[in-house]
Input
Amino acid sequence: MKRLLTIDLHKIFKNRSSKIILITYFVLLSLFALAAAVKINIGINEFQLAREGIFEFPYIWHFTTYSAAIFKLFIAIVVITMMTNEYSYGTLKQNLIDGLSKEEFILSKFFSLVLLAIVSTIFVFIFTLILGFIYSTDTSAAIIFTDLQYLLGYFFKLVGFFSMCLFLAVLVKKSAFALGLLFVWNIIEGVIGLVLTFSVSEKTADSIMSFFPLDAMSNLIKEPFSRLTIVKDMQESLNPMGDLKDYHVLFSDIAIVSVWTVIFIAASLFLLKKRDL
Output
């Protein structure tokens, strides 16, 4: 494992574009601190995110993991590029000539994307702790380490998404085409979801769509904004019955994403074995 990981990381960090993209990704995540200080004037009222409890433990775990996942496309570009470059520069063929099996080659890519997901998760963990300590009124251990489930959901979301990107890169061999196909895939899932919503009940449509890859990844960390007090007050005025939405990271969603991860990695290996290089 160490040998395979070393080979792939060497390729990533020798690529200037990949390093720039990764640095940009972590810089953007760090800008969460600025969001807390932003003050918005609405008429005579002043609105500040930090005052709405958005950076309070334990809610902050939900908010930061959901928001950080939005930027996952940056690392996805690195994953796609590191695969398509293997075709463009002929390093895939050279690695196989040098004795690396196709199984080991795909494993090296998988280990790399898992490592990227781990590093990102650790970064979000540390960053969330810092923000939480700065803005939370309660910093007791029992409160701080509540809802760490969102970090687990974040990790599986990244691994699943990066595995999908790896498969698309193996499938089309070109970075631009792989990103385009990812965009088209997202549209297709959206259209299917709309058709199902109008064809059957919304609940049934959501249940069916939860088995689709992108939708399953999205379900791992549901939107956190409706948990804010100001939003809850508005919802209660419109719906006295209350919000029955389950915000937890569900094992069923983790299982679905894990199955898709296995499928994408297995499909990548299958394509690699079937093609003439």
